[in-house]
Amino acid sequence: MDAPTGATRVAGIIGDPVRHSLSPVIHNAAFTALGLDWVYVAFPVPRGAGRGAVAAMRTLGIDGLSVTMPHKEDAAAVCDELSPHAERLRSVNAVARRDDDSLFGDSTDGEGFLRALADEGVAVEGRRALVLGAGGAARAVALALVGAGAEVAVAARRPAAAAEAATLTGAAPLAFDALDAAVAEADLVVNATPLGMAGEEPPFDAGLLHPGQAVADLVYHPSVTPLLDAAARQGARPVGGLGMLVHQAVLAFTLWTGAEAPVEVMRQAARMALAG
Ligand code: NAP
User: Fold this and answer.
1) Which among 37, 124, 53 is positioned nearest to 92, based on CA atoms?
2) Taking phi first (over 0 means left), then psi (-120 to 50 degrees means alpha), and beta for anything else, what does residue 133 get?
3) What angle do CA 178, 209, 274 make, to 5 degrees?
4) Which of 42, 79, 138, 217 is deepest in the core (most CB within 10 A)?
5) Would you tell me the crossing angle of helices 109-119 and 136-147 to the nearest 10 degrees?
6) Each residue's pLDDT tens digit, 253-263
7) In degrees rounded to 5, what are phi and psi of residue 17?
């Protein structure tokens, strides 16, 4: 990438914390690969300042923003128009500033997850999916899976959170104490909690995982979590979180630039950054 000039277009990510984000590496690799005069930077924005930061895209002429914790709901509130998924979830992880300065918000995690599964040849339609967690990522994934024709259950340690996520997404709610039976019956098990980032074991009997099943972890660091390790040992198909990370970025990249994203360049950039 040449040094930025006065003509360089700016994209970035807002979050707290955000300095650890892989998004700058992924997007800048893509801009360079396509020879686009864009640059992508990280903006640390404290909790409570998200609305102002997104609205400032107009003032500062920022063309694209990724939005991560804790600003996704605030970003949805500020956008002039939302995609159907962002509208349903009231959550935005990618904002584009249009030529008329209006702000369009999208939620690309769910579609990114479906694309990551497709890359691995994992079918979704008509399959039973079990999503662990009821937070932002779990909701996005559950909504996408329901939309793709899966029969989806959402399990959370707090039953009220599972019920709320289920109502929002069209999935069925499940309590953590009913997990073992659901794991045994599921065609697809998805971890959408942070469990595994620090080596935690899955919150169910991993001996119930079995061949014919796909097991996806949204956690991408480490690349092999205890859940994915158990899935492989049990003969199930493990799917790591890197694919989703790359594909949600791919969707945002195209939203901002209108260009087809160089998926493999972005994947390689993410892999190298994680390998450190
Ligand atoms: P979030 O909104 O904070 O939700 C986290 C969920 O996990 C909540 O339901 C929470 O339950 C549950 N949880 C947390 N600790 C738990 C524990 N010890 N036992 C059981 N449940 C627990 O976070 P998020 O944005 O959805 O992200 C979830 C994970 O997905 C994170 O690790 C994130 O890095 C990853 N992620 C990956 C991608 C990707 O592209 N691969 C994209 C988005 C997110 P409570 O409400 O009871 O705390």
Assistant:
1) 53
2) left
3) 105
4) 217
5) 60
6) 999 999 999 99
7) -85, 165
